[in-house]
Design goal:
The complex is a heterodimer of chains A (471) and B (194).
Chain A (H helix, E strand, L loop, with lengths): L4 H7 L2 E3 L6 E4 L2 E4 L5 H9 L10 E4 L16 H17 L2 E3 L9 H7 L8 E4 L13 E4 L2 H10 L1 E4 L3 E8 L10 H12 L7 E6 L1 H4 L3 H9 L8 E3 L4 H7 L9 H11 L10 E6 L6 E3 L7 E3 L7 H5 L3 H14 L14 E4 L7 H11 L9 E4 L4 H9 L2 H7 L2 E3 L20 E4 L14 E4 L2 H10 L12
Parallel strand pairs in A: 3-4, 3-6, 4-5, 6-7, 9-10, 9-12, 10-11, 15-16, 15-18, 16-17, 18-19
Antiparallel strand pairs in A: 1-2, 2-8, 13-14
Chain B lengths: L6 E3 L1 E3 L7 H4 L19 H4 L22 E3 L12 H9 L3 E4 L4 H8 L4 E4 L2 H9 L4 E4 L4 E3 L4 E3 L4 H9 L3 H6 L2 H11 L6
Parallel strand pairs in B: 2-3, 3-4, 4-5
Antiparallel strand pairs in B: 1-6, 6-7, 7-8
Classes of the chains: A alpha/beta (471), B alpha/beta (194).
Chain lengths: 471, 194
């Protein structure tokens, strides 16, 4: 029977299959960070259980690490306890840790692929919803809760009901692909299918417009699959995938043998059927900006803030949600997006903090200055990204423009460290969630691409980055 | 985990769609390293103003619902971050059951790991329950909700139901199949990270 890529990966990892309850699925890679793991290790200790496969488990600290000078002590004592707890847990249970001083430290979803931990056809879990990022490599990558983290530590498996395969065909060719980015593609998709459009499914992104994307762009798309409610996002691996992973720290020695196997198997068979299908044509999409408090509340930069009844399309619940969102965001329906002034710019997060993101953003700001009304920061996704950017001189471009150039971590995507918005501040952010208070209590987040964020930093308000010179 | 029992309580109405886990427990409270004590942070930014004073018109601050064990809400509850702290906070606050038209996947799965019952109902039934201004009784064993007006039944996966009723430990259940896991490992030869 023809199978989808997702079904192939699922089937090849089944330990016990059940139709009347959860199956037991083997996990090839388990990524651990400081925020969602302490209670899992505590559970292991209470029940006198060991970590079954420390050799398939890697930890780093990313969520609440400061992004200021790493030689200084951590000011937030509770954050420090969490960081120390991870250090102790990794030591006690024999888990490899890339700590705050490691050259490999970084956002877990940035370092996984950079280190070659992420491999096509594997199952990957992490106690973080943005684990979906790794799906860009044709891995089944699932965000899990802390109890499941404990379950994986103890058994190297998860118990899970089989999600349904969902095909999203991305067709057409973007006009001005420097200005209309992968972020704009995924925001366009979520805007159309909604924040629960993918619930119960694993999305496979297919079509020419996906093949055209670089690996880092595919990661941006898969990363936000969870924002559409999906369990995971996938892209079938191709030569770009195999090239990206060749020769990295953990790339297996028999890599070429594996690649030839992957080429045979890791694709959706012709005539395989999906439970659901959706097609988006990217030929005419514009740069996207979110106006509300969830990642489906998005419009084109050329549009104006929608009226709640127009957004709600007849749903009373959605109308109320939009009214509440406009109130929280302090926006008036009908205002042109380009008239909205901002206070802060954040370029970073597991969605958009990789080297290509920084290169693209640097092209926008080169030789220009951040608006005097704006505070702007760049937080590279990992120490490796930071180093590479510095070798290319990107740090100088950002600093010359008055951007802050910081150490790697999740930073202001969720503001667990000191990088937060003050109440009422408005931010153009390359992150993934514009939920109320996400970047700081009372803070107002507008999701955009790195080039849109960079352009907004210069102008002090949103601009259509297609009108700027990006060469 | 304790066995899940019949619950009788007034229903706390949270009339919102797409309640994300950042609202259920804001990130500034995720730094604790134990599972207890999150109740005081539940819906923190909706419950309290900038000075930490209760916001009177938020439903959890209405004394009428002080001892409620059942929360009712609308579509896609628990979307966003995978933080299990969301369930720990709901439970620690005093809720045992949440009713909604739909739930986000990770949140839904997290509920069952903590002896917490999520019930999915159609929107008409949820509308009716929003209007029910009296105690209702929910019996997981019989999968029924008794209101003063009628008895409603609800669906739940049998396996998950038993997990709650018997207070089963997922990990212990999986470890019963350790031989199968070992067989898989021999067969699959997963590349090591050492």
């Amino acid at each position: 029977m023809p199978k989808t890529l997702f079904e192939k990966i699922w089937d090849s990892h089944v330990v016990i299959e059940r139709d009347d309850g959860p199956s037991i699925i083997y996990i090839d890679r388990h990524l651990v960070h400081e925020v969602t793991s302490p209670q899992a290790f505590e559970g292991l200790r209470l029940n006198k259980r060991r970590v079954r496969r420390p050799d398939l488990t890697v930890a780093t600290m990313d969520h609440n690490v400061p992004t200021s000078d790493r030689s200084l002590p951590i000011v937030d004592q509770i954050s420090e306890i969490q960081i120390k707890t991870l250090e102790k847990n990794c030591k006690d249970f024999g888990i490899q840790l890339f700590d705050i001083n490691s050259p490999y430290q970084g956002i877990v979803h940035v370092i996984g692929p950079q280190l070659g931990i992420t491999l096509p056809g594997t199952t990957i879990v992490c106690g973080d919803s943005h684990t979906s990022t790794h799906g860009a490599f044709g891995a089944l990558a699932l965000g899990i809760g802390t109890s499941e983290v404990e379950h994986v530590l103890a058994t190297q498996t998860i118990r899970m009901e089989k999600p349904k395969p969902f095909e999203i065909k991305v067709v057409g060719k973007r006009k001005n692909s420097n200005a209309v980015t992968a972020k704009d593609i995924i925001l366009s998709i979520i805007r159309r299918i909604g924040t629960d459009g993918g619930t119960g499914t694993v999305i496979e992104y297919r079509g020419e417009a996906v093949s055209d994307l670089t690996m880092e762009q595919r990661m941006t798309i898969c990363n936000m699959s969870i924002e559409a409610g999906a369990r995971a996002g996938l892209v079938a691996p191709d030569e770009k995938t195999f090239d990206y992973l060749r020769g990295r720290k953990f790339t297996p020695e028999n890599y070429d043998v594996l690649v030839s196997q992957w080429k045979e198997t890791l694709h959706t068979d012709p005539n395989a059927s999906f439970a659901k299908s959706f097609t988006i044509d990217v030929s005419d999409i514009a740069p996207q900006v979110s106006w509300g408090t969830n990642p489906a509340m998005v419009c084109d930069v050329t549009e104006s803030v929608p009226f709640p009844e127009e957004y709600a399309k007849g749903s009373e619940d959605q109308k109320k949600a939009a009214e509440k969102a406009l109130q929280y965001m302090s926006l008036k329906a009908g205002t042109q997006m380009t008239e909205i002034e901002i206070d802060r710019v954040f370029i970073g997060s597991c969605t958009n903090s990789r080297i290509e993101d920084l290169i693209e953003a640097s092209k926008v700001i080169k030789g220009k200055k951040v608006s005097s009304k704006v505070r702007a920061m760049v937080v590279p996704g990992s120490q490796m990204v930071k180093k590479q950017a510095e070798e290319m001189g990107l740090d100088k471009i950002f600093k010359d423009a008055n951007f802050e150039w910081r150490e790697s971590g999740c930073s202001m995507c969720l503001g667990m460290n000191p990088d937060i918005l003050a109440s009422g501040e408005r931010c153009a952010s390359t992150s993934n969630r514009n939920f109320e208070g996400r970047q700081g209590a009372g803070g107002r987040t507008h999701l955009v691409s790195p080039v849109m964020a960079a352009a907004a930093a210069i102008k002090g308000h949103f601009v259509d980055v297609r009108e700027m010179d990006l060469n | 985990m304790e066995h899940f029992r019949k619950i009788k309580s007034i229903v706390t109405p949270l009339d919102k769609v797409n309640v994300d886990t950042d609202q259920i427990v804001p990130k500034q409270f995720l730094k604790l390293i134990h599972k207890t004590g999150f109740g005081k942070f539940l819906f923190y930014n909706w419950r309290f103003d900038n000075n930490g004073n209760p916001i009177p018109d938020f439903v959890l601050n209405d004394p009428k619902y002080k001892n409620s064990k059942i929360l009712i809400t609308r579509d896609n509850f628990g979307c966003g971050s995978s933080r299990e702290h969301a369930v720990w906070a709901l439970k620690d606050y005093g809720f045992s059951i949440i009713i909604a038209t739909s739930f986000a996947d990770i949140f839904y799965s997290n509920c069952f790991k903590n002896g917490f019952l999520p019930i999915k109902l159609d929107s008409k039934t949820v509308d009716d329950l929003f209007q029910t201004n009296a105690e209702i009784e929910i019996d997981l064993e019989t999968q029924t909700i008794k209101t003063p007006a009628k008895t409603i039944s609800f669906d739940i996966d049998e396996h998950r139901k038993q997990i709650l009723l018997k207070g089963l430990d997922d990990i212990a259940m999986t470890l019963e199949h350790e031989d199968k896991i070992s067989d898989y490992e021999k067969r699959a030869n997963v590349p090591s990270l050492l």
